[in-house]
Amino acid sequence: MKTKRSDDDIDGGNDEKMLKMEEMVVLGVDGGGTSTRCVCAVLPKRDLVAPHKLQVLGGYFCNNGCNPNSVGETKAHETLKSALARSGKQVLDVRAMCLGVSGVDNATDVGKMKQWLSTIFPDIEHLYVFNDAVVALASGAEYGCVLISGIGCIAYGCTADGRWARAAGLGPLLGDRGSGCGIATEAVMAILKAHDGRVPETKLEEAILELLKFSSPDNLVGWIYEDSSWARIARLAPQVFSVAKAGDVVAQGILDDAVTELAASVKAVVKKLALGGEDGMALFAVVLVGGVLDSAVEIGEKVLTNVMEAYLNASIVKPQCRLSKRACVKPAYGAAWLACKKERERKQN
Questions:
Q1: How confident is the model over 103-122, as pLDDT tens digits?
Q2: Where in the chain are the domains?
Q3: DSSP 53
Q4: Is the pTM of this model over 0.70?
Q5: Which of 94, 135, 156, 301 sees the fewest Cβ atoms within 10 Å?
Q6: Radius of gyration, CA atoms only, the chain
Q7: What's the rounded Cα separation, in Å, for the pair 188 and 254?
Q8: Is 297 exposed, middle or buried (0-12, 13-18, 19+ CB in 10 A)?
């Protein structure tokens, strides 16, 4: 999990080059419940290039969510307007916008979201909406499987013939144990159990109580129930990573369980889509995205090892999509790439 940042304008390296009038611009947005990432890119005239090779004019990161299902339409509207204004300083003609957002799982959801977007951006000719897992996959591979583990977690995959499948992504109340929120919740539970004498003591108690400036584990109960928002709880996850690295058996066990859960989600998607082929030996990509997988690299490596026990040729892909060291906008690159792809399909048809 990442330390909270303030709004971040990002230089794409091309801002000083004025666009030619005939060049079109697309906007890719990764719209979370707690943060928004946006990139402004030139629509390629000829061949569709990989996401990280798009000519990016600039980008923007902020700690405000733009998912209306999470923060409400008014706040989401304000965040989107601000993000697009600040990431698209050189926009002369915005041809298309693609938004990746959670909670969009069928045609009805997509239709509602597109209608809402059209009221905010009536001048953008084409609007595309996908589940956030779809744009995350696109940031690293056109087909295959993506594993997202940040505040929440989900595995999603698609094939060249249009089939798709997902696993997990149901929120911490229904068992997203490999997510930042899930890991943090397990840590709090371990502390409280140790405090009761039900399980061995753990260094997690000292680390988390110090972070929250609490004097006793008893304080954790009120803290959890006074505001059970996922992002608030998930910010404890880095403490679990550091305590596990220091050798704490309880913390290591929590992360081992997270690996098992995440790997099971990937394998479920791979099996549903037969990405490994009939013999399980076909090559396929597993794209890794999210704060947990960025912060605790060994988790992703262990997930791959677990998956490879069943599918030898699974291959990890880490999207090469950073505009700066401070702001990770990988899924927003995927959203921009999908906008380019859809515009190309329109032209061909």
A1: 888 899 999 999 999 988 88
A2: 8-140+321-348, 143-318
A3: G
A4: yes
A5: 301
A6: 21
A7: 11
A8: exposed
